[in-house]
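Following up on my earlier message about zinc ion. Here are the inputs again, as you asked, copied directly from the submission form:
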Amino acid sequence: MPELPEVEIARRQLEKWLAGRTIREARVLDARVLGARGGAGGKNGAGAGTPDAAARALAGQRVRSIERRGKWLHLVLARGEVYAHLGMTGKWVLRRADDPDERFEKLRLETSGERSVRYVDARVFGRVLVTNEAPAACRELGPDPLVDGLDAKALGARLAGRRRSVKEALMDQTVLAGIGNIHAQEALFRAGIDPRRRADRLDASDLRRLAAGIRKTIALGLADGTKQSSGDGDMTYVEEDETANPFLVYGRAGSRCPRCRRETLQRLVQGGRSTVHCVRCQR
Ligand SMILES: [Zn+2]
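Thanks, got it. Here's what our run produced:
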C-alpha cells in the first residue's frame, strides 16, 4: 500500500509528466474516483461530482505544479485544484494517447505530445477530487517528515498526550502525515522501541532514535522505489511482489531477527493491523 515514499515518487513523476503542460482532454472512466462516497476523500462532499463535470473542469487547464503532503497529492491548476489519494492500489502511469485502456483505468489526462497520464486503481479506495477546497482529511494532516523535516523535539510534541500505542500513533495521519503500516513497523524496529509502548511515555533518547528511524525508513523507501520505477516506469507496491520485499521486518514474521540474529520475529495485531517486531531488540 502506498505510503509517503511511493506518493512522493508519484509526485515527482506527475511533475515531470504534467507540470507546465495543458490538459487537452480529460476522461473519467469510473465515477467512484471522484469521491461520491467511501474511501479516502469520502467524507468530503465537495468536488466536481459527475464524470462529465470533472472532465469539463480539467480540459484546457494548464498544470502549474504538483505538491504533496502525507499521502495526498495536490495538482495546482491555472484555475482550480485536484486533490488525489492513491488509496490501497492506486497508481498514476504514463502511456501514449493511442495505447489501449489499462485494466482498472479510472481516469486519464491527455496532454500535448500524445501523452496520456492515467490513473489506475484495482480496489478503488483512491480518489481524484476536482475541487477548489482541500478535503477535510487533507486539512487535518500533521507535519510531513519530508516536507517539514522531523527531529526528536517535533516528534515529542506530536506524541505528547497520546495514550495509544506508539505504533498506532505513528499511523495516525493527524499526528504525522505519510507514515503507514509498513514504515511505522520499520521505524520502530530501527529505533529499538517496543511497538506496544504508550506514545506519550517515550523519553528523549527514544524520541531521538525514533525520529532518526522514521527519516531513515523514508529515505530508503524513496531510494528503493525510485530504482524500481526508474524514470517513467510504473510503480510496484511490495504487496504485489513479496519476493522484492526490501524491508527489515515488514512481512517477515517467523524469520530470524536481522539485528540480534537470535530471536524469531513475532507478529501482533494493533488497531486491526499487523506489526512485526523483535522482543529482544525492541524494548
Ligand atoms: Zn532482534
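One observation from looking it over: DSSP finds seven helices and ten strands in the chain. Hope that helps, and feel free to reply on this thread.
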